[in-house]
From TrEMBL:
It comes from Sphingomonas kyeonggiensis. It is an enzyme of class 4 (lyase). This is Dihydroxy-acid dehydratase. Belongs to the IlvD/Edd family. It holds the Pfam family ILV_EDD_C.
Length: 598
């Protein structure tokens, strides 16, 4: 590619501005000190950022430290200059009190880097749950050419000849521990078996979901999301990604060209077909708001609910990441959806082609893992959006409702879509862990468990604590799931049929704040309602009393960021993003270049 192929590089304002020679000298000198030459910095080659999310603190993404070498080779070969820099690390299972706090922080940091430095295009190294949305949100805000590279899942986990999937095995192991089937050491061994290599969760958890959706959105090279981290194909994808971003800069192909409403609706459909995480609506709605596309929680039910489940991955199914890749990954799923007219084929992707051109002819290589559309694993695998006096919006993944659960809750022939029962309310996971096995709570197979104080403000950060196991005495009696409702999130690796992401949360004085243990709650999946069966006067009196006490109580902030985020963060239905004026999420793309710094 010739240098004149890059007409309007923002990096020239730093490195090659003859009208501003004293500042140009200042900008140049420090980037020379590790061996870049004056000639190349002033050659008109594009400067490509490699936004590095891998580190020892974020093992899911750590393999990006290796892949970055191949990304650089691709960038160099296509005529670009690579500058690699760290992104605030996020690790889902290591960060306390929850990695939910860190998505918006990594986002903020990355926006400052992409906007304030001489970067013409960027490779976003995605992986662990929140690293993908954080990177895509930042790229949307700054709107410079950007391409995502997934780090890929770990190899399949195995234990005694059976696949053990990350996260999913934890929920099973907890039940086995509670039932006395394994001891502490057996618990750790069983859980560790699910993580045999570098990479992210090998289940259809939030990481596989969000990387699949990044590809479905068009922000990742076709076929690259599902490649397992250690595979040689992953190295090759890194190289092609590096090459392609340089071409994208030449073409001025920006996130706003790709992240259209059609692309988001495509991703919603794909999310249902893959059995994607309940975190997907939070993150996709957040990305949409940063690029200025209108996307609503209601869109998830309208466009996603009726789509069947095609991908047979844990937690909803049997298989794991290696199988998903071998069976054809995202393109094979998209091709099935295209065959039924469920995908807008004209949506543009990072390779300059449409999703239709990329995926239309992709074949399923193993029908046990990816089902053809006419033989799905289950019908209607998307989310229902429930509303009522408990909350304005919460979601439920009805496809994970198992036979045992259905038989106990949804078997009334007069009313096959509704159930009701007395609630037991927990204020945070500590309360739940301390009391769940206490017989005095009187939890029966007809009880509903409620977790509150777990939202973006209350926790803070919205933790994955809503799915709760029944008391040990019920598990021993064969009851493996009770309905759970909460204002927090649930891990994408859990198959519990919970009612999640309730907004507004208790800490924002949503209806959940007024609920008391012993109240009856009625869930109607036909009408999509969730109601406390408490008279309105009584609820009004409870609200007045709680307000007089200063509102629903939640723990004090422990870090400056916790405190800052609490003052700005919105609720889960609208993406739990930092709220501001109308242009707030897109300021950087509307303001031109930043001022000189000296
Ligand atoms: Fe990082 Fe699952 S914990 S991907
Ligand atoms: Mg998680």
């Amino acid at each position: 590619m010739t240098d004149s192929a890059f007409p309007k590089l923002r990096s020239r304002a730093w490195f090659d501005n003859s009208e501003n020679i004293d500042m140009t000298a200042l900008y140049l000198e420090r980037y020379l000190n590790f061996g870049l030459s004056l000639k190349e910095l002033r050659s008109g080659k594009p400067v490509i950022g490699i936004a590095q999310t891998g580190s020892d603190l974020s093992p899911c993404n750590r393999h990006h430290l290796v892949l970055a070498e191949r990304i650089r080779e691709g960038i160099r070969e296509a005529g670009g200059i690579a500058l690699e820099f760290p992104v605030h690390p996020i690790q889902e299972t290591g960060k306390r009190p929850t990695a939910g706090l860190d998505r918006n922080l990594a986002y903020l940091g990355l926006v400052e880097l992409l906007y304030g430095y001489p970067i013409d295009g960027v490779v976003l190294t995605t992986g662990c749950d929140k690293t993908t949305p954080a990177c895509l949100m930042a790229a949307a805000t700054v709107n410079i050419p950007a391409i995502a590279l997934s780090v890929g899942p770990m190899l399949n986990g195995w234990h005694r000849g059976e696949r053990t999937g990350s996260g999913t095995i934890v929920w099973k192991a907890r039940e086995m521990l509670a039932a006395g089937e394994i001891d502490d050491e057996g618990f750790i061994k069983l859980v560790s078996s699910s993580a045999p290599s570098t990479g992210y969760c090998n289940t259809m958890g939030t990481a596989t979901t969000m990387n699949s959706l990044a590809e479905a959105l068009g922000m990742m090279l076709p076929g690259s999301a599902a490649i397992p981290a250690p595979y040689r194909d992953r190295q090759e994808a890194a190289y092609h990604t590096g090459k392609r971003i340089v071409e994208m800069v030449a073409e001025d192909l920006k996130p706003s060209d790709i992240l259209t409403r059609e692309a988001f609706l495509n991703a919603i459909v794909v999310n249902s077909a893959i059995g994607g995480s309940t975190n997907a609506p939070i993150h996709l709605n957040a990305i949409a708001r940063h690029i200025g596309v209108s996307l609503d929680i209601a869109d998830w039910q309208e466009h996603g609910h009726d789509v069947p489940l095609l991908v047979n991955l844990q937690p909803a199914g049997e298989y794991l990441g290696e199988d998903y890749y071998r069976a054809g990954g995202v393109p094979a799923v998209v091709a099935q959806l295209i065959s039924r007219g469920l995908i807008t084929e004209s949506a543009l992707t990072v390779n300059g082609k449409t999703i239709g051109e990329n995926c239309r002819t992709a074949e399923i290589e193993d029908e046990a893992v990816i089902r053809p559309f006419d033989r799905p694993l289950s019908e209607a695998s998307g989310f229902l959006v429930l509303r009522g006096n408990l909350f304005d919006a919460a979601i439920m993944k009805t496809s994970v409702i198992g036979e045992e659960f259905r038989g106990r809750y949804l078997s009334n022939p007069q009313d096959p879509n509704a159930f009701e029962g007395p609630v037991v309310v927990f204020d945070g996971p500590e309360d739940y862990h301390a009391r769940i096995d206490d017989p005095a709570l009187g939890i029966t197979e007809h009880s509903l468990l409620v977790m509150r104080g777990a939202g973006p403000i209350g926790y803070p950060g919205a933790a994955e604590v809503v799915n709760m196991r029944p008391p040990a005495y019920l598990i021993r009696a064969g009851i493996h799931a009770l309905p759970c409702i909460g204002d927090g999130r649930q891990s994408g690796t859990s198959a519990s049929p919970s009612i999640l992401n309730a907004a507004p949360e208790a800490a924002a004085m949503g209806g959940l704040a007024l609920l008391r243990t012993g109240d009856r709650v009625r869930i109607d999946l036909g009408r999509c309602t969730a109601e406390m069966l408490v008279p309105p006067e009584e609820l009004a009196a409870r609200r007045a009393a709680l307000e007089a006490e200063g509102g629903y109580p939640y723990p004090a902030a422990q870090t400056p960021w916790q405190q800052i985020q609490r003052t700005l963060v919105g609720q889960l239905d609208t993406g739990a993003i930092l709220e501001g004026s109308e242009q707030f999420q897109r300021i950087a793309q509307t303001q031109g270049l930043p001022r000189d710094n000296h």
